[in-house]
Prior knowledge:
Shape: elongated
Strand order of the largest sheet: 1-6-2-3-4-5
Structural class: alpha+beta
Amino acid sequence: MLDSNFRLIAALTACTALGTTGCYGYYQPGTPDLAGHEVQLSITDSGSVVLASQVGWGIGAVDGKVISDSDMRYQLAVTGIRRRDGQESGWNGEPVNIPHTVVATVMERRFSRSRTTLFAAATTMAIIAATRAFAGAGGANAPGGSGSGGSGPR
């Protein structure tokens, strides 16, 4: 019984650790000043052509942290790009200037309490179910068993 309680506590601790890392989502910006915020900029078809020399051909979206946002352009420390064919590439924060005119939508990356709660609850239930499924008695130390598999001493 002590062993199964320990496993349950260890499983719940692992679940809590996973849950505290959190889940994030992209939402409409909560503030007009996006400097310092992580965003995803969806790029127009014509914008894909305009930005080809900076980020490559066929770009559909650019992820990164806004360094500055003027009336004319975003300056982004790019962390990733997604091409129109679905391929994704990671970047290391290189600064890229993106004119406002080539941006179709701006989404802000934010912590999602609901997604994190749902994930933590589902993970907890799965760990509890797995712990119960594998916590049955058995083996050589089970009461009433000889442990040697034979019919007695030889």
